[in-house]
Amino acid sequence: QVQLVESGGGLVQAGGSLRLSxxxxxxxxxxxxxxxxxxxxxxxxxSVATISSTYITNYRDSVKGxxxxxxxxxxxxxSLQMNSLKPEDTAVYYCYTKSPWGFExxxxxxxxxxxx
Length: 116
Fold this sequence. Notes:
This protein has 116 residues and is mostly beta strands. It has strands at residues 4-7, 10-13, 18-24, 33-39, 46-51, 57-59, 67-72, 77-82, 91-98, 104-106, 110-115. Strands 2, 4, 5, 6, 9, 10 and 11 form a seven-stranded mixed beta sheet that branches. Strands 1-3-8-7 form a four-stranded antiparallel beta sheet, with no helix packed on it.
């Protein structure tokens, strides 16, 4: 089973940038789909960006053009570059993975706070 550890969250002013990273363990990383989800206080968890094993990416509409997801299979990492941050991007961001066999894992999350 893949274990995930996020890093890179913090406090930033609106318009600023942050880069989140997720380090994964396990031998199936290159075959797994990876993604970033977020959960704001009092809200449901939502998908932010995903990247397949073949590097196909998908983004929620509200982050298109501002966020970029990438993966490095050699380093077993997935990153989320977040630019032009808005207060509504404030949330706990979770790294997620799903194997071709359907096994899922979540990281513990990292807080991103965007001040206005």
